[in-house]
Amino acid sequence: MLRNGLYIVATPIGNLQDISARAAEILRDADIIACEDSRVSKKLFALLGISINKKFISYEDHSEEQKAQMIIDLINQGNSIALISDAGSPLISDPGYKLVRLCREQNIYVTAVPGACAVITALQLSGLPTNRFMFAGFIPNKEKARTDLFEELKNINTTLVFYETAPRLLKTLDKASEIFGNREIAVARELTKMFEEVVYGNFEDITAHFTQNEPRGEFVLIITPPQEKKSSADDIKEILRKRLCETSLKTAVKEISAEYKLPKNDVYAMALELKDE
Ligand code: SAM
Q1: Rg from Cα positions in the chain
Q2: Whole-angstrom Cα distance, residue 247 to residue 159?
Q3: Which atom of ligand 1 is nearest to 192's Cα?
Q4: What is the Å distance from ligand 1's center to 11 Cα?
């Protein structure tokens, strides 16, 4: 018997056997299952051999705010509720965050049953640096939003991880290559499933691969951090000279000190020298 509260339960992202013993037990014992699509969840229960003879309530992105309080009311009435997504870890590009926040505010018991998550699995298989990474969710579909996001992230010194869909992959690679330039990337698809594949290389290699092999299934895109640019004082001066023709002194100093990881004061002093010349 479970105490009343919210149980955030991870389910497999492809391989049924990735369900943990604790997750299966909680799904079996919870009074109510809060899920995205009850048809998908009932199918999972059937495959796991767990009875579907309990209440399934929908908890989707667009209904998150209204439904959260309703779920808390059910918990306060004594119910244990397991929150699951269609696949993987709830709250990771899936609904749930507002519900957990509300539970915290109202002192409701919350626990998590960790398990499969595409971000982590892809990162583990990517061969790219894992010491520091940023998960940036789904890449926006609209051209401008996609460009703005890539521009915002291009100078951040971490590995970047994104979710992407098959029909958009080639378009995304094209834009990413334009903005991120010659970086190492990995594209992981169909993780833990029969056609699991991880393709490594630069944008050109990966684009060639997926031009020859039509993208199919679910995708994670991983981009390595920017290389630290090492340059002599003369190189920096040359770059500054060019940049000062294009933009203000303040912007040039800000951009170059960020790009080359140099103290702003040093770059500023060089810029002043050049201005005097
Ligand atoms: N919450 C899930 C998790 O823990 O990974 C992610 C849900 S999100 C709505 C679905 C996206 O996750 C897919 O479009 C894909 O980008 C990624 N994804 C999920 N399963 C995957 C798999 N088996 N292989 C590769 N990517 C996957």
Answers
A1: 24
A2: 29
A3: 23
A4: 11
